Amino acid sequence: MNDLRIIQIKEPTSELLPQVERQFAELYNFIKDKGLKLPLVKDGEKKWINSIKKTVGKFVALFVAVDGEKVAGFVSGVVKFTPDYLGNQKVGFLTFHYIDPDYRGKGIGKKLLKSLENWFEEKNVSSIEVQASFMNEDSRNYFKKNGYEYELVQFRKFLINHKSANKIN
């Protein structure tokens, strides 16, 4: 871990993206046991990586922690705007944050988080939003420890069987 670097991916052709894609799938596999109700669809990690390639480095930030040639973790975020009735404020939204289990507890997550926060500051956002599963106490405590405050609780009611709704045709 002597060669650890935090890198912002700005090009959709980065050779690190396949590792991030794999970690995205690992993230969803991890949080499915932490209360997440909507599962990742088949090849969802590919769909996600393809969706961010269009705006990475512009409206989407993607930072990776790299140890030698291995991605140790990543954080991503996007700039959004609040509705008119909330002042059209520019808001940062932390979309995903994942650290490989072999690298947890070494301060890498905090370095990645700080890199994203700095990017949001450069974009003149007024605040940063993040969602964490109510069952993932470690995640909630992590964000509290890093200065984030509780604001909302999200509820979901399924109107159809969500397993069949996500079935791939």
Indicate the radius of gyration in whole angstroms.
Answer: 16 Å
Rounded mean pLDDT is: 91
Overall geometry comes to globular
What sequence of helices (H) and strands (E) makes up the elements? EHHEEEHEHH
Strand order, largest beta sheet: 1-2-3-4-5
Termini, distance in Å? 43 Å
Helical fraction equals 25-40%
Low-confidence stretches: none
Protein topology:
Elements: E1 4-8, H1 17-31, H2 44-53, E2 60-67, E3 70-81, E4 90-99, H3 108-122, E5 127-130, H4 137-145, H5 162-165
Helix pairs in contact: 1-2
Describe the structure.
- The protein has helices at residues 17-31, 44-53, 108-122, 137-145, 162-165, and strands at residues 4-8, 60-67, 70-81, 90-99, 127-130.
- The chain is of the alpha+beta class.
- The chain has one domain: Gcn5-related N-acetyltransferase (GNAT) (Aminopeptidase), CATH 3.40.630.
- β2 and β3 (70-81) form a beta hairpin.
- α1 (17-31) crosses α2 (44-53).
- The longest helix is centred in the N-terminal third of the chain and has 15 residues, at 17-31.
- The protein is globular and about 45 Å long.
- The protein starts with a strand and ends with a helix.
Keywords:
31% helix; Aminopeptidase; alpha+beta; 5 strands; 5-stranded mixed beta sheet; 5 helices; single chain
In brief, what are we looking at here?
With 169 residues, this protein is an alpha+beta fold. It is built from 5 helices and 5 strands; from the N terminus they run βααβββαβαα. α1 packs across α2.
